[in-house]
Design brief:
560 residues, alpha+beta, Bacterial polysaccharide co-polymerase-like, 4-stranded antiparallel beta sheet, two-stranded antiparallel sheet, 6 strands
Length: 560
């Protein structure tokens, strides 16, 4: 459409546009001029941070101010509390014109429309070094047509906010403290059970725990070193024992006796030994009853009585060894059937039977040994044997120790898995208990801080004052909005009318419809009847407009 067509539409529909627009504008103007004065009482509450560092008391008392304010608002601004405030300060009429009780939801809507709660925020740097927006204060205001009611309601709301904040913080800290106390008790019981299980496992596997592996290795190393040293020492003692035995075998227990004439006489033991050797040799040659054998038996009997009546095992062993040496020499010179060989074999059998009977006991000759050299060597030999026995006992103990520690080391891999599980369970229980204990202490301190008003709190810095002048209604802005609304409604009426009108009013419209331009255009000529009809219609519209405007003004004034 061209601008000329738009102009024609405006010119043709000017009354349809003007009447609704002027009517709406008049209604908005009268409504704006007739609005009641509204008084606003405002209080500013500062959100103060806690007086002590958060690291000292933990994060129990920490809460976002905006979230805390919203929570308090939800608790305070319930239907019951709002009706109580409305009835206490007579903010609104609680009864309608018919004497019926106004529903709570309507009173709540009225009250919340008049209530204003705004946060004051600024950009701050948090603990992570990030710039964030944080609430530092908030304003609480109430609007009313009565300045005293506005101030009283605002004061009551401020008091309620401060009390509820203190109460909720203390209740929250106490609740957290009680919850953590229960959790600490459960964690302590869990820790005791884990420690008891670990202690029982350690007692059942004492010495085989993984941390004892190095100690076992060290113990085995020390025992093996001592065992090696004792083995060397035992070898030295065996050599020493052999040497002393050789020396002792060449000595007689009793010392030789020297006669007054200077002649040295053998001791009874040496003489008995010599006679026994001579007797065995002759008994193998002569028959029983031979004079030489009878003489030897008599002398042997007398000497046996003097030395104790029996030969010592050492003496018999010495004689047995000598006879065996003699037999080896005879076998090298003679055959097995030679009389000397047979007599030697018979003597050996007799000595072996006597050795078996004599055993390892000491003879009287040994008990009464008086040869100093023999006594010295024998004492040294006994000392060596005693030390050797002691070393053997120590070797057995060391070997038992080595076997014990090796068995413990072999057991270690089998118990390492369950032991590590018990350790982890005990460590986790200990960490959990320590963490909960720390939080519990922080919660207790937080509760004390809340009671002492040292945590995050609300502080009234600007109390609500009595408003002396009403709030500005911002009349120009209201009238501007009314003008925009009037123009919009008028335009809408014109657009609807044009869309509903199917008449052809221009040659261009006809050309678009039939596809060809008309040959000529004859304009519409108004006659007297047409003019009269137009005047009548205009008059009717004017009367209707002013009547409707008057009715709207009366309704607005009456309603207000």
């Amino acid at each position: 459409m061209s601008l000329d067509e738009y102009w024609r539409i405006i010119k043709r529909r000017r009354w349809l546009f003007s009447i609704p627009a002027i009517g709406i504008m008049l209604i908005v103007t009268f409504f704006a001029l007739s609005m009641q004065d509204i008084y606003r009482s405002e209080a500013t509450i500062l959100i103060e941070d806690q007086d002590i560092p958060e690291d000292f008391i933990g994060a129990t008392m920490r809460n976002y101010a905006s979230q805390q304010i919203q929570l308090i608002s939800q608790r305070l601004f319930t239907a019951a509390n709002i009706r109580s405030l409305v009835e206490e300060f007579d903010v609104y009429a609680t009864m309608d014109d018919d004497g019926e009780r106004i529903p709570d939801n309507e009173l709540v809507d009225y009250f919340r429309d008049d209530l204003e709660l705004d946060l004051v925020s600024e950009q701050v740097i948090n603990e992570r070094g990030i710039e964030v927006e944080s609430a530092i204060a908030f304003t609480l205001a109430f609007n009313s047509d009565d300045p005293e009611i506005a101030q009283q309601v605002t004061e009551e709301l401020v008091t309620m906010f401060l009390n509820e904040n203190q109460r909720s913080s203390a209740v929250k800290a106490a609740g957290v403290s009680e919850l953590l106390k229960t959790a600490v008790g459960e964690a302590n019981e869990e820790l005791r059970e884990a420690e008891a299980a670990l202690t029982s496992f350690k007692l059942a596997n004492d010495g085989a725990l993984p941390e004892m592996r190095q100690l076992n290795l060290d113990a085995i190393g020390r025992a093996e070193q001592l065992l090696s040293d004792l083995s060397l020492r035992l070898q030295e003692l065996e050599q020493r024992k052999l040497q002393l035995s050789v020396q002792l075998s060449s000595l007689s227990p009793t010392a030789p006796v020297t006669l007054p004439s200077g002649e040295t006489v053998m001791s009874d033991r040496d003489r008995l030994q010599a006679l026994l050797v001579d007797y065995r040799r002759k008994s193998a040659v002569y028959q029983a009853g031979h004079p030489d054998l009878v003489r030897l038996e008599r002398e042997i009997g007398i000497l046996r009585q003097s030395v104790g009546g029996t030969e010592t095992s050492s003496l018999l062993a010495e004689q047995l060894q000598q006879e065996r040496d003699r037999l080896r020499g005879l076998r090298e010179r003679y055959s097995a059937d030679h009389p000397d060989v047979r007599s030697s074999e018979a003597a050996i059998r007799q000595l072996e039977s006597q050795v078996a009977v004599a055993g390892s006991g000491r003879s009287a000759a040994e008990e009464v040994a008086d040869n100093p050299a023999y006594i010295l060597i024998n004492t040294q030999l006994q000392s060596v044997e005693l030390e050797a026995r002691s070393i053997r006992q120590k070797r057995r103990e060391l070997q038992a120790t080595i076997d014990k520690h090796q068995a413990l080391m072999e057991k270690t891999p089998r118990i390492e898995g369950p032991y590590q599980e018990l350790l982890r369970a005990a460590e986790n229980a200990s960490t959990k208990y320590a963490d909960l204990q720390s939080k519990f202490r922080a919660a207790e301190v937080a509760a004390d801080m809340e009671q002492g008003i040292t945590g995050q709190r609300f502080v009234l810095i600007e109390p609500p004052l009595l408003p002396l002048e009403p709030e500005s209604q911002n009349l120009p802005a209201f009238l501007l909005l009314g003008a925009l609304l009037a123009v919009g409604i008028g335009t809408a009426c014109v657009v609807i009318a044009e869309l509903a009108d199917d008449s052809i009013r221009t040659a261009r419209s006809l050309t678009r419809i039939v596809g060809a331009a008309p040959l000529a255009v004859i304009p519409y000529l108004d006659n007297s009847e047409d003019l009269a009809h137009v005047r009548s219609r205009r008059m009717s519209l004017a009367v209707a407009f002013f009547a409707g405007t008057a009715l709207c003004v009366v309704y607005v004034i009456y309603a207000l």
